[in-house]
Amino acid sequence: MDGIADIVQGMKPITLDEMKSVQLMNRIDTKYVVTDTQLREILSRVCDSYYAQEVENNRFSPYRTLYYDTPELAMYIAHHNRHLAREKVRVRTYVDTDLTFCEIKHKNNKGRTRKERIKMERVDNIVENPNTAAFLAERQPYEVESLRPQLETAFNRVTLVNFEKTERLTIDCDLTFNDKMSGKVAKMAPLVVMELKQDGRAHSLLKDVFFDMRIKPFKISKYCIGICLTRPEVKQNRFKKKLMKIDKLKNLC
Fold first, then answer.
1. Which end of the chain is more exposed for a tag (fewer CB within 10 A), N or C?
2. pLDDT at position 124 over 80
3. Do 179 and 36 form a contact (C-beta atoms < 8 A)?
4. 3-state SS string over 77-100?
5. Which pLDDT belongs to residue 27?
6. Are 51 and 75 in contact (CB under 8 A)?
7. Burial grade of 16 (CB within 10 A; 0-12, 13-18, 19 or more)
8. Measured in Å, how far apart are the chain's first and last C-alpha atoms?
9. How would you classify the pairing of strands 167-179 and 185-187?
């Protein structure tokens, strides 16, 4: 990550309060996987046109996410089998601000993502907590009592917002997967997962840069890739090309 922190620190800051106008809770997401060398070039080309989110004087914010699924991994299998409409259930903790939310991510058959969430105590189990259990029962199709913690991810996130505030880019570095069932740990470093979040059809400087650098979108689910890397016995035929591409990118580093 040499030089990346310096570029991010040199960008104009934006606060959490100022970010409220670009939450993009109903949006189109495009993901990319790049090397740290590519990330450095991307940042150098857009740093004069984007804000960097700052929290407690920190622009690299640690996140922890715990994904829930059924014992049969029904949500994972739905994704693997290419169901267009699907859900993810997770608990996300923003370590900097000590805030934790139970979240549901809905993906519809038109490719749009909608996120719903409810604030909770970090130590709560979403199945045993009456508030989160009711929230889940009303908003997703799986039996709440069947949900189990399956995979935890940890990463440091940089969030950029363009000056026009029409899009947001999240950059997840140092991504680590910890399987709660197998106990295995896997890492994505030195690769970086980026997600461009847009609401509308406004021009995107970032997309211009990606096109110029021949960086193509990479449809990736951190939850699904984490399961593949930490639980190889699970069905993963349709993810093999993605896993091979990840290995190829790592070999370029």
1. C
2. no
3. no
4. HHHHCCCCCEEEEEEEEECCCCEE
5. 64
6. no
7. middle
8. 11
9. antiparallel
Q: What is the pLDDT of residues 78-100, one digit of tens each?
A: 999 988 889 999 999 999 888 99
Q: Hey, what are 18's tokens?
A: 């100022």
- Tens digit of each residue's pLDDT (9 = 90 or more) over 230-240: 999 999 999 99
H-assigned helices in the chain? 4-9, 36-46, 74-80, 130-139, 205-212, 222-230, 240-252
Say how many C-beta atoms besides its own lie within 10 A of residue 52's C-beta: 21
**Mean pLDDT score, 214-230:** 95
Radius of gyration of the chain (CA): 18
Would the CA dihedral through 223, 225, 226, 232 be positive or negative? positive
- C-alpha span between 42 and 196 (Å, rounded): 13
Q: How far apart are CA 103 and CA 91, in angstroms?
A: 6
Rounded Cα–Cα distance for residues 151 and 182 (Å): 9
Q: Reply yes or no: is the peptide bond before residue 190 cis, omega within 30 of 0.
A: yes
Token look-up 């259930």 returns: 89
The pair of three-digit structure tokens given for residue 220, joined into one six-digit string:
């990736």
Locate 113 and state its tokens.
Answer: 């993502």
**Residue recorded with tokens 């608990």:** 91
Question: What number of other Cβ atoms are within 10 A of residue 134's Cβ?
Answer: 12
